[in-house]
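>> received
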Amino acid sequence: MYLDEAKDLMDKAIKHTGLEFNKIRAGKASPAMLDGLYVDYYGISTPLHQAATVNTSDARTIIIRPFEKKLISDIERAIINSDLGLNPQSDGEVVRLIIPPLTEERRRDLVKQVKNEGEAGKVSIRSIRKESNEELRKLLKDGVSEDDVKKAEEKVQQLTDAHISKIEQMVVDKEKEIMTV
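>> returned
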């Protein structure tokens, strides 16, 4: 039971890390870059993808088509106030985001950001390991044999190692993607 729960939590940590990586742009336009962007929609802070359709027209352009034209200025404001570093352009119908090519310095900054996100994912997995091991040690007080607890702890460690290596591979892959010109 504890192993299944630990595995589920570690899988979620990997999924979350992957979602964070998707938000880091690698010079290509991707609707996922705008995940986490909120716009004021009838007085309610709403995720952008619930107030507009977001598509890419080519490798460097994102097209945002709001469900209501009056949202265009709110969408532009949300993009400008975000940390995306993009300048929205609108024609009254849609908002266009042109993704500029990345400089070498910006690529290095993005790689640092990827490594930080990867480290955060690994820390999350290690904390899950710690919590699982604490739960397993509590079982000793309930009369479970020490050998069984040790075997379970070893399995938790194997899960931890496997998930950390997955995150390390994700970091390597994302770094290659960013550094490819």
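>> The domain at 28-98 is CATH 3.30.1360.40 (Gyrase A; domain 2).
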